[in-house]
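Training component of the fellowship. As part of building independent skills, the fellow (R.M.) carried out the full modelling exercise for a liganded target. The chosen ligand was zinc ion. The inputs are recorded below so that the supervisory panel can assess the work.
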Amino acid sequence: MQLYQNQDLKIYNSLSGKKETFTPINEGYIGMYVCGPTVYSNVHLGNVRTFMSFDIIFRYFKHLGYKVRYVRNITDAGHLENDADEGEDRIAKKARLEQIEPMEVVQMYTVDFHNTLNKFNFLPPSIEPTATGHIIEQIEIIKDILDKGFAYEINGSVYFDVLKFNETNNYGKLSGRNVEDLIHNTRALDGQSDKKNPQDFALWKKAEPQHIMRWPSPWSDGFPGWHLECTAMSTKYLGEQFDIHGGGMDLKFPHHECEIAQAEASNGVSPVNTWMHANMLTLNGQKMAKSTGNFILPNDFFTGENEHLSKPFSASVVRFFMLQAHYRSILDFSNDALLASEKGFNKLMDTINILPKLQVSNITTFDVEAWKTNCYNAMNDDFNTPILIAELFSAVKFINQVKDGKASVTQKDLEVLTKVIHDFVFDVLGLQNVDSCNDDGSEKLSDAVEVLIKMRAEARANKDFALSDKIRDELLAVGIQLKDGKDGTTFSTN
Ligand SMILES: [Zn+2]
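Fellow's submitted model of the complex:
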């Protein structure tokens, strides 16, 4: 029996605008696709927040016992400077400016993306496919859409015919826009474009002679439209219909709307049951923007070198801070809010550290089972991490009362409490009890080394010199030197 069989999980579906009971297409299995980054610059904090929301969702599904295939792509071609299929390819432009190969740009920022996400303790997705690795699949989908009459070719480029599609389907159902409004609100074509109508979008673009990222196709040497890669990769790895598609709020239109249209035109079915969108973030109440100086890069937290920060913060503190807002709410960063989160985070970790030292008795003065249910209920209510954190803090309060002799807990309840806290704090929320940047970091290190010194003394007393030497050598390998003196063993760090 898996945990998910006892849970009533509800997820807000952007397509219906309602929270719905979640039932996967195949019992026990979940297919989830999340639009990944376009790797032409360092990952920004808004992306980190979006991917963190889906990291929590991925972690919770796994905790519930689901087998999850989580696909998050890397966009390494086809994403032009603006959404109207115009301008330079973002990666090619960066390559031109830096005078390097486009694939060097892709490699540099893919590595940066992975490094940054690793620092924040993200789980890797099950598959991380690239747009350039799926050109053949994209060409096949274009042929299919052309055959079905929902696209047209002009001068070597292929465009999706939105008006034709809308005769039989509903273009705009995700973003709540209707085609008539789009026609009124889209600026007229400037004569440069081959499109029949301005709301049409590119499936394939013929490459200009100077465009270096190009592939052969039945229509021209060119490159796929940005929206198409996600349809190709999600269909390939998750099937024509799958459970969850996620991304940032800004992708709802046109990107996700176009994905739905392409999939429906090609496969005849609506591709996704549940659409999920993570909200944006602000800094000191204002939109983050490089142009105004109102921004923080993810790595700035670790150095503290940013005019909006008074000191460095650990990745877990930043993660904890982000999870104190629901993924569908706007998250506002400020130094004061981070400092408050750091206090809360340290209190949570200190409390977890005292759990093994608590004295047990014959009664428990806290309803552990009800509290456990509340923790699950919080996550089952559209992944409500702020409510979950509030529940964790009611346990923190109780545990500290036990420590102070003002409350009591039985051995059995203490075991449940410890397990549930560990499950939620470390497995589901993905927090870590190690990389604290605060002043007691060195104190914790010295406590840990003292434990090893004691174990080594015991090993020597038992004549287990292999173990005692191993402890000494392995500490030395990480820069900690033990010194045996007549008053016992001390240590120094390099
Ligand atoms: Zn996408």
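The panel noted the following from the submitted structure. Residues 35, 230, 255 surround zinc ion (CB under 6 Å). Residues 435-439 have pLDDT under 50 and may be disordered.
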